[in-house]
Amino acid sequence: MSQFDLTGKVAIITGSTRGIGKAIAEEMVANGARVVISSRKQDACDAVAAEINAQTPGAAIAIAASLSQKDQLEVLVARTREAFGRIDILVCNAASNPYYGPINDISDEMFRKIFDNNVLANHWLVRMVIDEMIERREGSIILISSIGGLRGSTTIGAYNVSKAADMQLARNLAVEYGRHNVRVNCIAPGLIRTDFAKALWDNPEAEKRFNAVHPMRRIGEPRELAGAAVFLASPAGSYVNGQTLVVDGGSTI
Questions:
Q1: CA quadruple 207, 202, 46, 59: dihedral, nearest 10
Q2: 75 in the Ramachandran plot: left (φ > 0), alpha (ψ -120 to 50) or beta?
Q3: Is residue 215, in this structure, part of any structural domain at all?
């Protein structure tokens, strides 16, 4: 059996109707897992689940939930257990960044929204799934952070602060839950061609400038994050805990 095999495992993946989250869901299914597709809009979730089930019948279900609504996240977790009986893997991929500009000019409302969606919602979801993982003495929690959490920015500073907080959340939870054989890690993507990051790359000149100084001379694609998530979720990553795995093609070097 491959160390990357996820047969029999169930994964909740937030923000999985497009981009990185969708790519992770598809790759986890390809390695044997069943997945819960979740984002704010039910029709978008239904469409992606149907696409996956057309290739692998019964591998996906669709449950819409908003990060900002704790009761909706509780329903997400409860309905997953009703459908699949367990939760082995949690991928907190969904995030928001409603503000571009200096931190000095951000409103309290915007700052709180970024932290509520990018940090507090992850904390909520972890608390909702952790008991059964502790009981089984097995589980993998993956927070999708960003290389923004490793450096400053004059345009997405508040977002970067929230992503640095996710890295520390993973480290702290790894200390708390490692003794129960539950692992918590981060993936920190660089610039990836997603709708979420469109403002950073959707300009030929901006992309040209980025590529000119990037070690690989290109922007990353969502599918290039998926293998890292499978690694952290599978037996292949069984001794990786509390880490931030940078997947940026070399941007940070």
A1: 0
A2: alpha
A3: no
Q: Which position has the token pair 């929230």?
A: 162
Query: Which residue range(s) make up the domain with 59?
Result: 10-192+223-247
User: Quick one: tokens of 129?
Assistant: 């799934």
Please report, for the domain that includes residue 69, its CATH number. 3.40.50.720
**Virtual torsion, Cα 67, 69, 70, 75, nearest 10 deg:** -90
CA distance 202 to 197: 8
Q: Is 159 a catalytic residue?
A: yes
For position 199, what pLDDT does the model report?
Answer: 66
Contacts of 250 (CB under 8 A, 6+ apart): 214, 215, 216
Domains of the chain: total: 1
Residue 52 Cα distances to 100, 170, 193, 196, 221, angstroms: 34, 29, 21, 22, 19
| DSSP letter for each residue of 86-152 | ---EEEE--------B-GGG--HHHHHHHHIIIIIHHHHHHHHHHHHHHHHT-EEEEEE--GGGGS-
- Enter the pTM of the model: 0.95
pLDDT computed for residue 211 by the predictor: 87
Please indicate, yes or no, if residue 63 is contained in any of the structural domains. yes
Distance CA 1, CA 156 (A): 43
Mean pLDDT by groups of 10 residues along the chain of 253 residues? 96 97 98 98 98 98 96 98 98 93 95 97 98 98 97 94 98 98 98 76 80 92 96 98 97 94
Q: Is residue 203 part of a domain?
A: no
Question: Is there a domain that residue 200 lies in?
Answer: no
CA–CA gap between residue 185 and residue 201 (Å, rounded):
27
The single residue of 99, 100, 159, 177 carrying the catalytic annotation is 159
